[in-house]
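ok posting inputs for the magnesium ion job
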Amino acid sequence: MKIAVLPGDGIGTEIVAEAVKVLKALDLSFEMETALVGGAAYEAHGHPLPEATLKLAQQSDAVLFGAVGDWKYDKLDRPLRPEQAILGLRKHMGLFANFRPAICYSQLVHASSLKPELVAGLDILIIRELTGDIYFGQPRGRRIAVDGHFPGSEEAFDTMRYSRPEIERIAHVAFQAARKRDKRVTSVDKANVLETFQFWKDVVTEVGKEYPDVALDHMYVDNAAMQLVKAPKKFDVVVTGNMFGDILSDAAAMLTGSIGMLPSASLNTKNQGLYEPSHGSAPDIAGQGVANPLATILSAAMMLRFSLNQPEAAKRIETAVDQVLSQGLRTPDIFSEGTTRVGTAQMGDAVVKALG
Ligand code: IPM
Ligand code: MG
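and the output
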């Protein structure tokens, strides 16, 4: 089993170090190889996703990814910006299925910005299509408008598009995931306005006929955003396109108390996966040893389950995380009165200890 370890920028290096610590404590034999990605790779090699890093990722069973980005790179040409590393990995590895679970730990009910009764017991799974939509659609660019409201003026444009096979395969992923849960799928679209998402809705409906045991409903994305903060527990599996999934998954993350708790998995058809916390590189707190490593540690657990076929080891990590929360240990993002404030490394050490 080979794991490519790509810590990236900002807090990425700190949180990945803790996840690696936990993986090493499991007594499983992995080969782990680290490489630069994002701004760190740009500094060293002039590109956010160097050929060698991509090759390492492609040749591994799984990628453990930290985070990329820093405001100081915002002025670079788009192809050189750190974000291109993660977009490039998704594209070149074909990581079309993004799992973003939002689980509210009972110990953290009071850390949520919503009322405890709205989030207690929350367990939703957002499945975001990750290699299509307006993120990757061509053409895109800037030009002088020939029509529209201001012909002759400068304009920018992107292309939203989805093909039938792209929608079908992510729909299958969602229905199959729902079968292992509460057997409900909400497909989120904007079919009332967008051709792309009327097609999305039609194709998901067709695929749904193959899963008569799973209840399917459809929701417009604006309403879904509202329902997520109004009655989030009504959702089981949410399946949606790349851009809507980006936005809704951040909203869902906050329901759980902190985006610092949320792991994610991005899989291709070969079950090769990239595992990363749902949060970003947080340059404002980088280097201070205060970042929450639990999302990355939980991402490592997802990696063991989905790509490395080690469900028991995954469970051990998840149980250990639950235990450290019960012990009252909290990084600043989830701290509340009466709990014990710890730093990044202390949190990682506590998880290792709780593995038993
Ligand atoms: C995410 C991030 C990325 C995205 C950025 C960093 C390109 O926001 O994984 O949600 O938009 O997909
Ligand atoms: Mg995002």
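notes: Residues 164-179 form the longest helix (16 residues). The chain has a mean pLDDT of 96.
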